[in-house]
């Protein structure tokens, strides 16, 4: 009889322990659980809006490389690295030996300069066939006698495991622009302006 009462006591203790565990385990339908899911959804939404907001204003105008903020844009030139284009990415890391504050605004994909001779230091990244084929390099592109209201686009030529860049003059006030944002979501074209 003592053995039987021990078994009954053990079974009752197991049931009490299981009930106690169930009481401490959060119910997936409780307010606490919904709060956690809601907070994750809210944080995801805020993060998406933040990234989307950055994408909608990031690089919408060429990065200005000269000190006089009042200088008329009609007396400037634009140099562009083509930015993200398919599986390639060009970025301008310096103009005439002066860094372009990549840490502050991101490495610009286009810059506004005063007319004249300039040296642009550009990086070029290409993914030939997936991430394992990533190639990157840096080179200088020299452009002589840049004209006001002209856009100059760098063209890349791969030579073996290296590349070189040269500028093509797209002419005076061309219909040149870059696309910023996510295609099909918030992508917008920004035109090079000289007004």
Structure description:
- There is one protein chain.
- By secondary structure, this protein is of the alpha+beta class.
- The protein has 2 domains: 2-56; 62-191, no CATH class.
- It is built from 3 helices and 12 strands, in the order ααβββββαβββββββ.
- The strands form 3 sheets. Strands 1-6-2-9-10 form a 5-stranded mixed sheet, with no helix packed on it. Strands 3, 4, 5, 7 and 8 form a 5-stranded antiparallel sheet that branches. Strands 11-12 form a two-stranded antiparallel sheet.
- The longest helix has 27 residues, at 31-57.
- The radius of gyration is 30 Å and the shape is globular.
- The N and C termini lie far apart (101 Å).
Structural class: alpha+beta
Strands of the largest sheet, in order across it? 1-6-2-9-10
What Rg, in angstroms, do the CA atoms define? Answer: 30 Å
H/E element sequence: HHEEEEEHEEEEEEE
Query: What is the residue-averaged pLDDT?
Result: 75
> Which descriptor suits the 3D outline?
globular
Proportion of helical residues:
25-40%
Q: Which stretches are poorly predicted, pLDDT < 50 over at least 5 residues?
A: 1-5, 20-26, 30-37, 45-56
Sheet with most strands: 5 strands, mixed
Count of discrete alpha- or pi-helical segments spanning 4 or more residues: 3
The portion of residues forming beta strands comes to 35-45%
The number of distinct structural domains comes to 2
End-to-end distance: 101 Å
Number of strands: 12
């Amino acid at each position: 009889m003592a053995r039987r009462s021990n078994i009954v006591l053990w079974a009752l203790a197991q049931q009490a322990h299981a009930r106690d565990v169930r009481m401490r385990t959060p119910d997936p339908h409780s307010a606490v659980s919904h709060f956690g899911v809601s907070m994750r959804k809210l944080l995801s939404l805020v993060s998406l809006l933040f990234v989307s907001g950055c994408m909608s204003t990031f690089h919408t105008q060429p990065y200005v490389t000269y000190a006089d903020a009042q200088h008329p844009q009609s007396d400037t030139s634009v140099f562009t690295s083509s930015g993200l284009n398919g599986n390639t990415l060009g970025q301008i890391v310096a103009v005439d030996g002066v860094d372009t504050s990549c840490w502050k605004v991101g490495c610009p994909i286009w810059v506004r300069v005063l007319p004249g001779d300039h040296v642009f230091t550009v990086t070029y990244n290409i993914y030939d066939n997936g991430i394992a084929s990533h190639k990157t390099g840096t080179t200088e592109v020299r452009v002589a006698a840049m004209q006001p209201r002209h856009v100059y686009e760098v063209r890349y030529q791969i030579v073996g495991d290296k590349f070189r860049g040269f500028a093509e003059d797209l002419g005076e006030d061309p219909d040149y622009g870059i696309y910023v944002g996510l295609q099909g979501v918030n992508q917008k074209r920004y035109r090079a302006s000289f007004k």
